[in-house]
Write a structure and sequence with these properties.
Elements lengths: L1 E4 L1 H8 L5 H9 L8 E4 L1 H15 L1 H14 L1 E2 L4 H9 L6 H12 L4 E3 L12 E3 L1 H8 L2
Parallel strand pairs: 1-2, 1-4, 2-3, 4-5
Helix pairs in contact: 1-2, 1-3, 2-7, 3-4, 5-6
Length: about 140
């Protein structure tokens, strides 16, 4: 199963934000499971780095990002994704549209985010960490 992690899930892992870390870290660990492919986008990584850098400083934030990127796959933010976001009248938040189309182009079956309502336009299943955990990892 291909899953896409939104920036807020990455931030919770990088910054050990409880209680979400309990679920988000276990979901991220699926990157080493043969039945899962875990994706995020360069945009999500940039957002996650921003918050990790604020909490841990540049050097440690880069180390954390390097470790993270060794384990997950990166879906592109492509020119087609930009065009699709701009032309989709349902999408009001450009960033969410870019993330959605990055996940869509990699055929992800689920977007995991703590801001489910941001993806109201999605044709991909959207779950928060706890819901994903209950539905797929019991």
């Amino acid at each position: 199963m291909r899953i896409f992690l939104d920036a807020n899930v990455l931030v919770s892992v990088l910054n050990k934000e409880y209680p979400l870390f309990t679920y988000s870290s276990r979901i991220l660990s699926l990157a080493s499971h043969p039945n899962f492919e875990v994706y995020t986008s360069p945009l999500c990584l940039a957002i996650a780095f921003y918050f990790a850098e604020k909490k841990h400083g540049s050097v440690l934030a880069k180390q954390k990002m390097d470790l993270l990127c060794q384990h997950i796959k990166i879906a592109e933010n492509s020119s087609k994704g930009v065009s699709d976001t701009l032309s989709n009248k349902k999408i009001h938040d450009f960033e969410d549209g870019l993330e959605y189309y990055a996940a869509y182009q990699k055929d992800c079956k689920c977007i995991i985010t703590e801001d489910i309502e941001d993806f109201y336009f999605s044709n991909i299943e959207v779950l928060n960490c706890q819901e994903f955990f209950k539905q797929y990892l019991r």
